[in-house]
Specification:
By secondary structure, the protein is an alpha+beta fold. Helix content is 35%, strand content 34%.
Length: 134
């Protein structure tokens, strides 16, 4: 892969230990078969029991998985982050990466399309850049 190498952290929380483990396994396995992605390393924490993992759940289970992957382009990396929702990402390399106008346009359009989908689902809307009078 000639594109960026990205380290991603995924977290899962749920009521049942098996469901947390299985959902994270499925998440990583689905990522492994995506076109334009080469999963290089997977480091997974054991599923742990937690108190108050999030509002409305008094007790649950949690796990964290770290994935390092290479991408065929910056646009594929952006699409993967949008589709898979890691909690944290860090570009590990290369130190220099040249991106052409077409690849940059494709990456930006993927972000715009995803944001538009969220707005249509009621998760957001059109942002107004300046609501104060000048």
């Amino acid at each position: 892969m000639d594109g960026p190498v990205v380290w991603m952290v995924f977290e899962a929380v749920g009521e049942e230990e098996d469901a947390v483990e299985e959902s994270m396994d499925e998440h990583v396995e689905t990522l492994k078969v995506e076109d334009g992605i080469e999963v290089k390393e997977v480091d997974r924490d054991d599923v742990k029991q937690m108190e108050d993992p999030h509002p409305g759940l008094e007790e649950g289970y949690s796990t964290v998985v770290e994935v390092t992957a290479g991408f065929d382009g910056f646009d594929t990396a952006i699409q993967t982050v949008l589709n898979y929702g890691p909690t944290y990402v860090q570009i590990q390399g290369p130190d220099q990466y040249n991106i052409g106008l077409g690849e940059a346009q494709e990456a930006m359009q993927k972000v715009a399309s995803t944001m538009h989908q969220y707005a249509q689902m009621g998760a957001g809307g059109v942002l107004v850049s300046n609501t104060e009078e000048t």
